[in-house]
Amino acid sequence: MKDNFDAIISRNTLFWLLITNVAVLSPLYQQATLWSIGICAICFVWRVGIYLGKVAAPPKLLVTSLAVGAATTLALVSSEIGLLNALVNLLILGYALKYIEMREQRDVKAIVLVGYFLIALTLLDQQSMLNTLHLLAVVIINTGILVSVYQDKSNKIANLGFSVKLVLHSLPLAILLFVVFPRLGPLWMVPNIKSATTGLSDEMSFGDINKLTRSAELAFRVGFENPDGSTLGPANQDLYWRTLVMENYDGKTWRQDQSIKTIQRQAYFQKPQREQAVITANNRKIEYMVISEPSHQKWLYGLDEAFSDNNQIVELPDYRLYSLRPIDQRMSYRVVSYPNNIMELTLKDNTKQLNLALPPNSNLKTQALAQRFAQDYPDPQTRINAMMNYFAEQAYYYTLSPPSVGEQQIDDFLFENRAGFCAHYASALVFMARASGIPARMVTGYQGGEYNPQAGYYSVYQYMAHAWTEVWLEGQGWQRFDPTAMIAPQRILDGFDATFDSQSSYLQDSPFSPLRMKQYPWLNELRQQLSSLDYYWSVWVLGFDEERKQQVLSKLLGDVTSSKIALMMILSFIIIALVIGYYAGLFSINRNDDPLNKRYNLICQRLAKKGITRPQGQAAHDFANHVQTTLAQQHPAIAREFMALSTAYMALKYQPLTALQTRQHMQQFMRLYRTLLLRLLRS
Question: Are 428 and 484 a contacting pair, CB within 8 Å?
């Protein structure tokens, strides 16, 4: 049976199908497995062959073999890539297989609908301004397929132009629904089994934070909201973004205690309670908004002591903020911090024992050193200060490439290597404090931030990951002590870049990172301006919560009531429908859009004012003869030029002309039109 594929689907549609296939699948390359990419490539190459006329429609055996292979490989790797990624790959493979075997126009429509679904799925995960603009372009291209099906005689540029008009017509309705429609919860979220995570982990060994110092990825952004309207936050040495608290140490790795993990697991059903901040004249308040990048974890970021009124965030007993759902997409939340608030004024016995525990027979040299500190400095406050000074007085060095340590990690670091980064110094201080009888624990998070003066916000990157120590002192609660400030004070005062070379740290593995523009002032300013646009997008679009919605509606309606909202929606729908109907040609408005006719009729109107009227239905040639007879004596120039104008007009309207002839007649017509119009206005 002879294949009649080309007779069913035009080459114009085949062209758009090739473009759309790449456009729809390209944003999902991170979720696609190598097997999925390979099968999609086979399908695409075959479709290119069909478009070029080299091959016919694929045999059913090939399509069946690809389907069986896709299902088999997906079943084998689904446990490794996670449930959500497996579902995404299943949809990608279904799209590719339908793409290769389509034969009729109804198959094309199915491809378009699945394409829209894939675009929406991509938007759930990639919501930055650039990604959104990219996906908007993909929507336009995908719509171009439908346009090519129903307007096959149009050329490709006309198809694309009409697709742009359709998308633009839908934008007012989309904006209206965005403003007035209730903010719904993320109903699309499903368990993301074994998904890749970024940023800090709930376990920390000596080398973990060192790995993050080689990452130029953005962790989160912060916009401060000061009472005086300024956007500057606290000084860099006060920007300690608390993320995780670790209290268990086995001699190699710091971990969260099981009790806090239990609270985290139960937080969705039973929210933990934390004492509210004591608001006094000396306890200043800091308000800010955090925009977190996807980390696929649940821990969030905040300055001490942080509170949030977001109903998807809980405040844990160890003074951290914790999300009820994994951060699988950008998340914005408002925070109020009280930096002078006392954290845990009274320490429970079980918490005290937990933060005094040490591994048995571990780091005996360090324990002996801690005992000497305890004997020389009986007061805990004086003792911890002496331990901090010990790092500054001895020959210790701060480096991102420290020597390796053995089984007795702290001993090797303190007495042999004497070189390390924040995790080494914080671990040593916690160990010494515990060995001397002071409760202490490890805190990890981020320190510092890059201020963007263009938009007034701070960017915190993964390379700013940091570890510090908290000790509990009688009457003061948990207090922060950062031994890094004793070894490398510039790291804390002025930031990471003041201490380390970016080319040998976070830019080493990122050859195309925008942060490389920092060394060029004008490029760095351009980078910050582009980042500002994305920040505003995150604040006003991704962060358009119920509070901002109410602010916008209050400016538009005054008192926001359900009746006013309903009336606004009805009026908006009517206006949008009228505009779309007008452009669709549903209203019968007599218009003469032909510019040639407009100019010819304007000359005829000017002649009518001189008493020479063209009867309805009279041919242009006959009217030209009448004008020449009437004006031959008084205005011979007008009579002669109108005859030439009419000749050019009739040639352009009724004669088959070449491109060169059309251009010559149009030039003659326009020259005579301007001359005649000027003569008729003067006479």
Answer: no
Instruction: Judge whether 152 counts as a catalytic residue.
Output: no
Catalytic pick among 328, 411, 412, 482: 482
User: Do residues 221 and 279 touch, judged by C-beta distance below 8 A?
Assistant: no
Least confident of 288-292, 307-311, 493-497, 571-575: 571-575
Integer Cα distance of 311 and 369 in angstroms: 47
Contact, 680 vs 637, CB < 8 A?
A: no
Q: Distance between CA atoms of 647 and 665, rounded to whole angstroms?
A: 9
Q: Is the pLDDT of residue 529 over 60?
A: yes
Q: Which of 318, 422, 497, 534 is catalytic?
A: 422
What pairs with residue 307 in β-bridges? 336
Give per-residue pLDDT as tens, 194-235: 444 567 888 888 877 777 788 889 999 999 999 888 899 999
The one catalytic residue among 466, 497, 534, 665: 466
CA atoms within 13 A on the CB side of 377: 18
The CA distance from 439 to 436, in Å, is 9
Q: Is the pLDDT of residue 40 over 80?
A: yes
pTM above 0.85, yes or no: no
8 A C-beta contact, residue 437 and residue 383: no
Half-sphere exposure for 412 (CA within 13 Å, toward CB): 14
3-state helix/strand/coil string of 33-77: CHHHHHHHHHHHHHHHHHHCCCCCCCCHHHHHHHHHHHHHHHHHH
412 is catalytic: no
Q: Are strands 313-315 and 321-323 parallel, antiparallel or unpaired?
A: antiparallel
Nearest CA among 600, 569, 618 for reference residue 672? 600
Closest to 573 (Cα-Cα) out of 562, 565, 563: 565
Confidence of residue 35 (pLDDT cuts 50, 70, 90): confident
Catalytic (active site) residue 422: yes
SS3 for 130-155 is: HHHHHHHHHHHHHHHHHHHHHCCCCC
